[in-house]
Each structure stands twice: as structure tokens, then as C-alpha cells.
Amino acid sequence: MQKTELWYRFASCLCTAPEIGISLDISRMRFDDRFFEQMEPAMQKAFAAMADLEKGAIANPDEQRMVGHYWLRNPALAPSNDLRNEIEKTISQVEEFAKKIHSGTITPPGGNLFKNVLVVGIGGSALGPQFVADALASPNDKMRSYFLDNTDPDGMDRVFAELGNQLKQTLVIVISKSGSTKETRNGMLETQAAYERAGLDFSRHAVAVTGEGSELDRLAGSQGWLERFPMWDWVGGRTSVTSAVGLLPAALQGIDIRALLEGAKVCDESTRRPVTMQNQAALMALMWHYATNGRGEKDMVMLPYKDRLLLFSRYLQQLIMESLGKELDLDGKQASQGLTVYGNKGSTDQHAYVQQLREGVANFFVTFIEVLQDRESSSMQVEKGITSGDFLFGFLQGTRTALYEKGRESMTLTVERIDSRTIGALIALFERCVGLYASLININAYHQPGVEAGKKAAGVVIALQLEVVDLLERRRQLLTADEIAAMLGRPEEAETLFTILRHLAANQDRGVEAIRGTKPTEWQFRIRAAAQP
Ligand SMILES: O=P(O)(O)OC[C@H]1O[C@](O)(CO)[C@@H](O)[C@@H]1O
């Protein structure tokens, strides 16, 4: 298409939503004129399913649960007064708690103010809060945010070292909807131990966000933690950022959570309208369908041209891939669905993988995010009449054009600026898009059976570790993985046993010694002499 033709396509395809300050350009997607007409019946079905979901239907049939994240920013929509009150009460609880922490009504033992927030959580209990914290951080923040989002001991040590002797002024928020996620439990135990080593009373520094009656809830209650905030079964982890999960860390950091909720609410209103061509979430969902044939045949590369949005693609990875990546469809038929998401930020990525995007395998489409406001203050000129922000803009436009010339498709979301309202709106936009797209492809977006399988398998490995160490302690001789497997009556587990023992032997404090062989079958293991009684 020639430039003038493209200009007209751009002008006719641009979907603006001034109420949320977002516009969506789909002109660089090469759908044909009949595409929307063909998809309209399916889109209307998706709107109807979404309307039912918002009214409280069991939209997650596997778990027999309602799906209520849209009520979190508009509690009046909740299907009962009890739920509405719960949501409103929790938002007030978050605000009041943050106020007490900031004003020093609640202080750490020994006085002084809490200066830092350490969030311990994983998946939906970390990615949203991390994204919001990073996107909206400012030098005037009331508290500084840190995260433990893994069970990596070295990763935890790095955070503890960074906090150093500030632990005494650090408030810990342990977030887990289920209250039994092992990574989070481990992070909490290691944090508790760090406080004990520093002679501090962890319970006077800790709060929990979790489901009522969960393991974490009971622990926090029995140890008298500072406060507990609820998580509900009708909010999914990956759509929980507008619940206490995201609001509490944000409020403590000093972020305007009312503006964030307002941005999400207004975006919900805009994307609730069942008018496809005026609905950005519906248009994006249709573009995903068009680009991937509704089967995830292409990946989505997220390219926000703004450092503050660096973590957006990580956040979206869970939101999109945990929601859509399913083996079976809603009718129980084999579907192997999904949409792969990756990306960091432009123009940085231009100097990394954009080479392949332009010239290599054409297995993707791009979603650019353009932020119109360069910075809060005015800019210097880096060349006559040109600022750094002009270059950032130029690189975005240049990459979009260069990709299009090579037949690579893209969409562009343009926002005015990055503030709480915009972040709330962007979150809501993608949440809605995922929900609509899931309907288009007949997928339950609100369960995650595959993840449960991985968790169970890890449990098996941990149990096997206890068995093998027990055996080595009893046998006190050099043994190969095959010999151990045979002795345990589990010959099929030789490989797992080998990897368990290799890991233990690499960590001096675990008391296992390895005599290396050329091949894994030749390695021998025993309890270290020093560790023998
Ligand atoms: O909040 P929880 O229960 O600790 O779960 C953390 C994450 O684990 C998962 O269940 C599986 O990864 C996610 O859906 C969830 O966000």
C-alpha cells in the first residue's frame, strides 16, 4: 500500500477512547474488508458471555467460580450487597492502613517510620504489584518497594543485602491467594529468619493478603501479624492487581490507588460497549484472532517505547499465557491454544532482536505502545531542534514502518502519559481483551490446570530427595544413581535421583559427596565423611 493509502487506512482504523486517553491503531494489520463482518457474530457472542460474567455467572466452570475482577473497580456491579460491601471495605482498609503507616500511627518496634515495603509473592501475587510499582515509581514515593518473587536463595540474599540494616524499617507484605504456594512460603520463612537474625520481631513487621482461612491466614492470625487483607475465590491471581494484592503495595508506595481504580473503571465502561468498531478490547482481540488464525500461530511482541513499561510484557505474559494457554476448550475438546507474548522495551530492543523481526522468521506481530508525553519537565536539545524524546518517537515510527515494509504486522496503542489512571486503564484493557479473545476461541481463561500439574511433580521430586538422603545415611557407601534407584525400588527414577544428588553435592552444606564419572551413570554418591556421625 502506498503512503497516502496507508494514511487513509490509519485515519479510518484509528479507534480513540478520549475518556481513557488511549487510542488504538490497527492500520498496519493486513486484514481484509470482510474480516469484521465475518467475525461479528462470534464477537457478539463474546460480548454476551462477558455480560453474563460481569453479572456473576459461573464463568470458570472447572472451578465452579464467578469471575469478579471488574467489580473491584466498580463495586456497584457486584452481584450481591455482601460482595459490594466486602470490596468497598477492603479498599478503605488498604487506604487506612497505608495512612497509619505513613503517619507513624503504626510504627516498627522501637519507633521510627516504616520506610520500605518488601512484597513476598509469585505469579499474580507479584507481577501486577511489581509492574505498578516500577511504572509509577517517583523520587517522592512514601516508601520504597522491594520484591521476593522466587524461591531462589541467592535472589533472596541479594534483596536482604540491599535492605541491609534497614530491615527494622521494612514492612513485609506476604501475598498469596491460596496461602499455600511453596515459593511464597519459603520467601516468608527466609524473611522471618532474616528478621530473627537481626534481633527483630517479624510479626510486628508483617501483613498478609490471602484467602480467608488459608494456611497463610491462619499463620498470620496465630502469630499476631499487624493486619490481614482478604483475597476472594472469585478473583483470579492474574487479574488481582486491582484487589488488595496490587492496591496495598501501591498505596504504601504512595501511588494514587483511587486514580488507578478510576482508570480501570472508565476503561471497563468503554470496553463493555458491544459495538465492535468502537471497542478497543474487542478490536485487539479480533486482531489477535486475525494474526494467529485464532490458534496462536504467531507470537505477540510487546514493544512499549517507555522505560516505565518495561515490566508490562512480563505482567502480560502471565495474564495472557496462563489464561489462554490451554489443552482443552470449553467443550472438553483438544485445542492446544495460547498466544505467546514476549518483549521488553523500545528502542532498547532495536539493538537486540529487532534484526530478526525485520528480516528473520516472520512468526509474530507487534503491539507497540507509544507514550506522547516525553517527561514531566522540559527537554534539552540533543541536536538542533531535536530532543531525546523525539528520537524515541522516531525509532518507534521507524521500526513500525520498517517492519510493515517487510510484511510484518503491528498494532499501536498510544497513551497520553504514564500515570496511575493510564496504568489502571491499560491493565483493564488487556484483561478485557483476554476475556473476549478467550470467548472467540472457546477457552476457559480463568483456570490453570497445567500449573497444578507442575506443582504436583515438584512435590514428587522433593519427596524423593528425602527418601534418597535417608537411604544414603543408612547405607554409608558410594552408590550410583542406578544402584540407588534399584534400592529404592524405583528403577525408573534414576535420572531424577542423579539430578537431585548432583544438586545436593554442589552445595557443601547439604552433606552429600559426588565422585564424578564421565557419564551420569558412572557418578557415585555418598554422605560426606564430615557429615557422618
Ligand atoms: O497467589 P498464590 O495462591 O500464591 O498463587 C500464585 C500464582 O500461582 C498460580 O496459581 C500458578 O502459577 C497463579 O495463577 C497464581 O497467580
From TrEMBL:
Major place of residence: cytoplasm
Family matches, as Pfam families: PGI
Assigned keywords, A-Z: Cytoplasm, Gluconeogenesis, Glycolysis, Isomerase
Reaction(s) catalysed (UniProt annotation): alpha-D-glucose 6-phosphate = beta-D-fructose 6-phosphate
GO MF assignments: glucose-6-phosphate isomerase activity
Pathway(s) annotated for this protein in UniProt: Carbohydrate biosynthesis; gluconeogenesis; Carbohydrate degradation; glycolysis; D-glyceraldehyde 3-phosphate and glycerone phosphate from D-glucose: step 2/4
Record's subcellular location: Cytoplasm
InterPro entries in alphabetical order: G6P_Isomerase, Phosphoglucose_isomerase_CS, SIS_dom_sf, SIS_PGI_1, SIS_PGI_2
Active site: E322, H351, K455
UniProt EC number: 5.3.1.9
UniProt function note: Catalyzes the reversible isomerization of glucose-6-phosphate to fructose-6-phosphate.
Similarity-based family: Belongs to the GPI family.
Protein name: Glucose-6-phosphate isomerase
Gene transcribed to yield this protein: pgi
